[in-house]
Design a protein that fits this description.
The complex is a heterotrimer of chains A (513), B (287) and C (315).
Chain A (H helix, E strand, L loop, with lengths): L3 H15 L9 E6 L14 H7 L7 E3 L5 E3 L2 E7 L4 E6 L13 H14 L4 H4 L2 E8 L2 E6 L6 H6 L10 H7 L15 E7 L3 E6 L23 E6 L3 H9 L5 E2 L7 H6 L4 E4 L4 E7 L10 H10 L2 H9 L5 E2 L25 H11 L6 E6 L3 H16 L4 E6 L1 H7 L8 E7 L21 H11 L4 H18 L2 E7 L2 E4 L22
Chain B lengths: L1 H13 L1 H18 L1 H4 L31 H36 L1 H15 L3 H12 L3 H29 L1 H8 L4 H37 L11 H8 L8 H26 L3 H7 L6
Helix pairs in contact in B: 1-2, 2-4, 2-11, 4-5, 4-7, 4-9, 4-11, 5-7, 6-7, 7-9, 7-12, 9-10, 9-11, 10-11
Chain C lengths: L1 H28 L4 H6 L5 H11 L5 H13 L13 H36 L4 H14 L3 H15 L24 H27 L2 H8 L4 H38 L5 H11 L2 H29 L7
The chains are: A alpha+beta (513), B mainly alpha (287), C mainly alpha (315).
Chain lengths: 513, 287, 315
């Protein structure tokens, strides 16, 4: 009997030695994602992960450079006529799709048409379209009923944006998400396989036709150095971190703020801070419930919140957050400080007075929040405490994300709900301004300002209008911005060429391993 | 008096290690009852300046990312552990025992009841609980219900098995032939004999309910996250495992100790059990 | 005998039918809408309605159930809402991981549980016995995910000996070496279950040792180790075999959390993710297959019992 331990020991030893060091193909980048991506048809979907992956396969007519200025990508130039009502866009010649066909105006027209009809953000540009035509093999003409100052930004923004598919794919798909076998684009990587729960794999597209200018942000030449990129779902964050430390992954996303300092000092890991922030938003219900028309109570809630405390607790290191009330960071052309004095007052007395004035009687206010994003829940917890100090009772309704998405569409289920949004290149894309988005903010003041904002192509007039809109948001409180959060990702030090990502989605052209 | 105490403690005196189990169990009950007096801090008090502190003289078990005192939260966590344990055991007994007795006494009804139990047992326990929670919504009561359903099945089976044996025993047969009613039979002969096997079952159910609740909490589907339960503490802190490994240590240790001590108690009780019933108990565990 | 098998099969089929109804109803009671998850934040009600119609979710529950059932009986478990691929292929992708994980775990359970249980039984009453039994009880009380997290911390993050997570297929680059990814999770999963098998081995060996024929064998002067191997061990094995049914059920349950912690692309994590995404066809498929597996294993265990020990009266 006493021999047993030895036998077990022997077996373990044999087993361990049999496990030779695993050899992964050298040129494959392994990216640990927070979960399985939804459909990669980014015209229709807006999930961040889908954008991250698909930007390697699908391209847009324009792309943002490091300064957020849209530069031609599949387009080669444009002419704006008729005070901005007619846009003539010329296309680059000799750009092949992954299936070998050359991209022509026919493909662009089909893609933009589908985007306009079914794309998540297509309506923003295309609802005023009078006609969209191929006016040459490499030229399209878009006529609008009124000028749209955001047109180039909208054509450059890949998230829910107008990526170019072959005409056959775009017109066959209609409103359905595009099927896996039709993932055909013009990008430096092409779709290889999707194994559920295991990985999505892209491989280099050898016939890629790059723009003839140096890489700059998302614009310029995209050079595929790696053989393949694998996006591997690793939902547990601790596992993502230790996976990088142990060399099982090359890149990992969504790392919590509190690990920043440790990881920053860890030589086995390099830290990549995103250049553009995301921010939490608490939407107030304008359709139903206690906050419906009670502006004073909304202001009371706004006054009670100390967002710095919430950011410190939920995010941690000060490098990773900014108690910034403007919807844009200081570096942006859209930055404005109008209204931001009310951003983070944390004044319980003022809040109490405002609440009293509003006729608030202590009825619990239903705050809908999900634990799928920990900082949502953490901030909501801190705010609940702060509001309680001002005599405002909050009832946290904690659900999972799928339930939240369904509940928030039902106006009688909630008073406030918590979500977050990424940076968008044009304020027209900010959901607070969208009257069909849950919260349903629709006042005459807002409609007037919004009309003057979108109806002109003049950048100064648009900036002023946006500044007024931001002030109105702080006065009518359709939503409360909870502060800028700079997410960061981590990578193996062997990865070279990852620039400062200027937008949320990291890309891997120009990167070597 | 002394005699009674001795009989009660007998199973534990025979096995020293079981005495340890009893002591830990009592300590946990004490902590749960007097939590507000014991703790140095309010378990919900947020302190943004003292986040993620390692164990020190002021914060014995350190603090979490809200700056809340882990020791105080662990002590308060024993309340939820107790509530979950008692809740699940009560639910399992109150549903499983009648179902089991009924099935044994009335075989026709019993066939259906036991088939229903079979159906429930065919589902992996955690998936069953998970499904119930997602349908019912998160909450302590719902967590108790979801885990309770899992152990309702084993309790019903055990009761059924023991009752069948008792029913077949001569004296029950005899009293039946004398014209005793079913109710009287159950009260007089069956229930008293069920007490000790069910006590054993209850200790095991209590122990495994802790593990089940912790798993649900860990998947984010157990007690609401604003309640300091040990499982929630693990779920909230798991992202800090490399940064602050101690954060997960103490709540996890408490789960282990609680389950361990009740397993020891159950084990000691089972050893003293009438061998006739030991077989009916089978394995207490269902995962 | 054949009658018995038929009866058991009939009972299993009834259970399965009832279970299928429960699965279906339960799953559709889950609040939340898969379509919103699928279409994302910006979906318009029109898009949602169109997709609902396409997937057949606008039909009545009863109609959906029978169409699902008749398809399942033909081997078609439907399409995953989320992946847009057949459910069976989604499950098939996870099956390799889960089957290998369960197998390796079973190896640990047998290698650790049975011999150590035998040692404890042979040293019955000694400190070794008490210590081993106590340790087993302790291990049975440990949450697998908690052990898992610390195993990752120590062996992957600190020592760097083993991979922390994930599992590339053995058919991928790396081949059999990829099995090292399953070492830590299988250990975490094995701990509480090996402890139970240990206790069971010990208890049944002690029971058998008290039986008359073993005493007779001893009295006949057969050497102690032969008594152990030929009589006690073989009979004790019976009890252990009967435990495999519930050990399997335990493994399936615990794999749900373990696969989540170790980011394994197995069926356990698939089911949690599918619940969160409300991917009904996948949840239904996985649970149904699990139930079939459970019923099948239990049937096999009962039957093998009959063959291994003719004294066991079935019925």
């Amino acid at each position: 009997m006493t021999k047993f331990p030895k036998i077990i020991g022997g077996a373990v030893f044999a087993a361990v030695t049999a496990f030779a060091a695993s050899a992964m193909a050298e040129g494959t980048l392994r990216y640990a994602t927070i979960g399985e991506p939804p459909s990669l048809d980014v015209q229709v979907g807006t999930a961040s992960l889908a954008s991250t992956i698909s930007q390697h396969m699908f391209e847009t007519l324009y792309a943002f450079d490091a300064a957020y200025d849209p530069q031609p990508m599949l387009a080669s130039g444009e002419q704006v006529e008729d005070d901005g009502r007619t846009l003539v866009i010329s296309l680059r010649e000799g750009v092949p799709f992954h299936n070998g066909q050359e991209m022509t105006s026919e493909d662009v027209v089909a893609s933009l048409t589908r985007w306009g009809e079914h794309g998540s953000r297509g309506g923003l540009l295309m609802k005023n379209a009078v006609s969209l035509e191929a006016t040459g093999k490499y030229e399209i003409t878009l006529k609008l009923s009124e000028p749209n100052g955001a047109w180039k930004n909208l054509l450059a923004f890949p998230n829910g944006g107008p990526v170019i598919y072959p005409a056959s794919v775009a017109s066959a798909a209609g409103k359905e998400p595009i099927a896996l076998e039709d993932y055909i684009g013009t990008g430096p990587y092409r779709f290889n396989e999707w194994k559920p729960n295991r990985h999505v794999e892209l491989v280099r597209f050898d016939d890629y036709a790059a723009v003839d200018s140096p890489a700059d942000g998302y614009a310029g030449a995209r050079v595929a150095e790696l053989d393949a990129i694998r996006f591997i779902p690793v939902p547990d964050v601790g596992t993502r971190v230790s996976g990088i430390q142990a060399g099982d992954y090359d890149y990992a996303e969504f790392i919590p703020g509190d690990l920043f300092e440790t990881l920053d000092a860890d030589s086995a890991v390099t830290v990549h801070r995103n250049g553009a922030p995301i921010y939490g938003l608490m939407f107030m219900n304008s359709k139903d419930g206690i906050l419906k028309e009670n502006r004073k109570l909304r202001q009371a809630i706004q006054a009670a919140l100390n967002k710095e405390e919430a950011l410190r607790i939920s995010i941690g290191p000060e490098k990773l957050w900014d108690a910034n009330g403007s919807f844009y960071p200081k570096t942006s052309v859209w930055y404005s400080d109008s209204g931001v004095a009310s951003f983070s007052e944390g004044d319980a007395e003022k809040a109490r007075a405002l609440a009293e004035e509003s006729g608030y009687d202590g009825t619990p206010i239903k705050l809908l929040v999900s634990t799928n994003y920990q900082f949502h829940y953490d901030q909501a917890t801190v705010f609940t405490k702060q509001l309680a100090e001002a005599g405002i009772n909050v009832q946290l309704i904690v659900v999972d994300w799928a339930t939240l998405l369904k509940k928030r569409a039902q106006p009688d289920q909630w008073d406030i709900f918590f979500t977050h949004h990424g940076s968008v290149p044009d304020p027209v894309l900010i959901t607070v301004l969208n009257e069909t988005y849950p919260g349903w903010w629709e006042t005459t003041e807002k409609e007037a300002l919004k009309a003057s904002f979108t109806g002109t192509a003049d950048i100064d007039a648009r900036r002023n209008a946006w500044s007024d809109l931001q002030a109105l948001i702080y006065d009518q409180v359709p939503a409360v911005k909870t502060g800028d959060v700079y997410s960061y990702n981590i990578a193996s030090p062997a990865l070279k060429g990852i620039g400062d990502s200027t937008v949320i989605w990291p890309h891997f052209w120009g990167v070597t391993k | 008096m002394r005699e009674t105490l001795h009989t009660l403690l007998a199973p534990f005196l025979a096995r020293r290690i079981a005495l340890l189990g009893l002591a830990i169990t009592l300590l946990m009950i004490f902590a749960a009852l007097f939590a507000p007096i014991i703790v140095p801090y309010d378990p919900l008090e947020i302190d943004s300046l003292a986040r993620l502190s390692p164990p020190t003289g002021t914060h014995w078990f350190g603090t979490d990312h809200f700056g809340r005192d882990t020791f105080s939260r662990v002590v308060f966590g024993s309340r939820l552990a107790l509530i979950i344990g008692i809740g699940v055991v009560s639910f399992a007994l109150l549903t499983g025992v009648p179902a089991g007795i009924l099935s044994a006494m009335f075989p026709r009804v019993g066939w259906f009841v036991m088939r229903a139990v079979d159906v429930l047992m065919a589902f992996p326990a955690l998936l069953l609980a998970l499904g119930l929670i997602v349908i019912l919504g998160q909450g302590v009561l719902n967590a108790i219900l979801a885990i309770g359903v899992v152990y309702l099945t084993t309790t019903a089976r055990i009761t059924y098995g023991v009752t069948l044996r008792l029913r077949a025993e001569v004296y029950v047969e005899a009293s039946r032939s004398l014209g005793a009613g079913t109710v009287w039979l159950v009260l007089k002969h069956i229930l008293p004999n069920l007490v000790s096997p069910l006590l054993v079952q209850a200790s095991f159910v209590f122990a495994f309910a802790q593990l089940g609740a912790a798993s649900l909490d860990f998947l984010g589907l157990g007690a609401p996250p604003d309640i300091p339960s040990w499982g929630n503490m693990l779920a909230e802190s798991r992202i800090y495992i490399t940064r602050a490994p101690w954060l997960l240590f103490f709540p996890g240790l408490m789960i282990v100790l609680t389950a361990f001590s009740l397993n020891l108690v159950g084990d000691a009780l089972r050893d003293r059990l009438d061998p006739r019933f030991r077989e009916a108990l089978g394995t207490p565990r269902r995962n | 005998m054949w009658l018995y098998i038929l009866k058991r099969l009939g009972a299993a089929a009834t259970t399965l039918a009832a279970a299928s109804v429960i699965i279906f109803i339960f799953i559709h009671l889950i609040p939340g809408d898969p379509l919103y998850v699928l279409l994302g934040d910006g979906a318009t009600p029109d898009q949602v309605d169109a997709l609902r119609q396409k997937l057949g979710f606008d039909r009545s529950l009863a109609v959906q159930y029978f169409s699902w059932l008749s398809n399942v009986l033909q081997g078609d478990f439907g399409q995953s809402i989320f992946f847009q691929t057949p459910v069976l292929s989604v499950i098939g992708d996870g099956a390799e991981t889960s089957i290998l994980l369960a197998s390796i775990t079973m190896v640990w359970i047998i290698l650790l549980g049975i011999p150590v249980g035998m040692i404890a039984a042979m040293r019955h009453g000694s400190w070794t016995d008490q210590g081993l039994s106590g340790l087993a009880m302790l291990l049975a009380s440990v949450p697998t995910f908690w052990v898992g997290l610390y195993l990752i911390l120590i062996f992957a993050a600190w020592l760097g000996w083993l991979p922390s997570s994930g599992y590339p297929s053995i058919f991928d680059d790396g081949g059999l070496a990829n099995l090292q990814h399953l070492l830590l999770p299988s250990l975490a999963l094995a701990a509480p279950n090996a402890a139970l098998i240990l206790r069971l081995t010990r208890a049944s060996m002690l029971d058998v040792a008290r039986e008359d024929y073993v005493r007779t064998a001893r009295a006949k002067g057969i050497r102690p180790w032969r008594v152990v191997v030929r009589h006690i061990f073989r009979n004790a094995l019976l009890a252990v075999v009967s435990a495999f049914g519930f050990t399997l059920a335990a493994l399936i349950s615990e794999a749900v959390v373990t696969e989540t912690v170790f980011a394994l692309p197995g069926i356990g994590r698939l089911v949690v993710q599918s619940i969160l995404r409300r991917d009904y066809p996948v949840i239904q498929g996985v649970i149904l297959i699990t139930v079939v597996l459970y019923l099948g294993v239990n049937l096999c265990v009962d039957l093998s019992y009959r063959f291994l020990d003719p004294r066991v009266e079935l019925e």
